[in-house]
Specification:
Layout (H helix, E strand, L loop, with lengths): L2 E6 L15 E5 L6 E2 L6 E2 L8 E4 L2 H11 L2 E5 L17
Parallel strand pairs: 1-6
Antiparallel strand pairs: 1-2, 2-5, 3-4
Length: about 90
Amino acid sequence: MTVARIVQEQRKTTQSGKAQAGSWTLEYERQQAQRPDPLTGWNGSGDTNTQIRLRFSTKEEAMAYATRKGFTVHVVPAAPTSLKLQAYADNFR
């Protein structure tokens, strides 16, 4: 059975706008354990589903897609953020 995770995207710290904040992303969870490659020593697995990320505008659309495909779903909402508003002069107190 395929297990998926639906995550609410937050604004990236390097962004000033809120273009993709609030969108929802469906990611597949890893089905195989990672193992070191004997030649390079890098970790990897044959599970390529973890490379797929589907973006939806609402949580309901993501849930409808997951139920239509028969996935087990874990929903991860975005952590609440609070802004600390201060003036530039407060840096020199």
